[in-house]
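STRUCTURE REQUEST FORM
Protein name: ATP-binding cassette domain-containing protein
Source organism: Williamsia herbipolensis
Requested output: structure tokens
Priority: standard
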Amino acid sequence: MIEIHDLTKTYGRGADAVTVLDRVDFTVSAGEIFAVVGPSGAGKSTLAQCINLLERPTSGEVVVNGERLTDLDAKSLRVARRRIGTVFQSANLLSRRTAAQNVALPLEYLGVTTAQTKARVAELLDRVGLSPHADKYPHQLSGGQRQRVGIARALALRPSVLLSDEATSGLDPAATESFLDLLREVRDDLDLAVVFITHEMDTIVKIADRVGRLDHGRIAEQGAVVDLLLDPESVLGEALRPQSAASSAAPGQVVVEVTHNSVAVPGDWIVQLSNQIGAPVSVLGGHVGDVAGVSVGHWTLAVDAAAADKVPDAVGALGLAVRTDVAAASVVAA
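Status: completed
Returned output:
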């Protein structure tokens, strides 16, 4: 488990002081993936550096399995930091070392014997599916393969927390899917607490259990992905929903947008809605998907203007809600 309490990072002093992180709070349990999303300048990179203590927070706590890492001296911190494995953007592999030698690096720093290192590296490369590429150099590997080496290296010291800092940025869709599958697999197998920092909204729906929106250095909103998707008033939920093009309404019709806000939306809800408002309902566009076994989605509908005022109550009885305007644009900007 990792706990972040009132984490604050300020650069400079007095009138020149700039607070990049402002009392950030969240907890990630073992076996859970918590995503952090936000626009450029929100503080995501600084948060990643403070979590693994590459940057000392100005105040607040980073607690791993009950131990306050922020209270430790430099020597004790070097030992405690082994509990946090980090996968960086673009893997950060050493170009003059092979895949196997890159994975071995943390073990060599600890003075692990050659035989033990060799066995551990072989085990990790097999886990990430790169045993045949052990002797290849980074330039001989694809972007997705380099990130797999990065995961293997991050797991070398058997951490309890894994920090993924924009690790899918720059990967093509196939490599991203492969990386997410592997991340989910090691989370399940090793019962890791995973902090997944990203600006890519679609990856969050695919991988995260919970998510927090970082805005101007503060966690402005957080919750289970499913709960946010089912909340029509959630800025983050709105940003997480895939958007689809909608056609135009016919003359005499008005456009109404609705979203799932219940785990139980009947399959024939459009027919039921039409019956309840006594008017035809046209679907102009929409999207529905499965997240953690729950059907979530949003729809753009067209209804006769005379029946529009009946829609909110009618959809409410069907497990949906009329979607109000939410300012999600700032969440998505990268």
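Reviewer notes: Residues 173-190 form the longest helix (18 residues). The chain has two domains: 2-226, 235-332.
Form closed.
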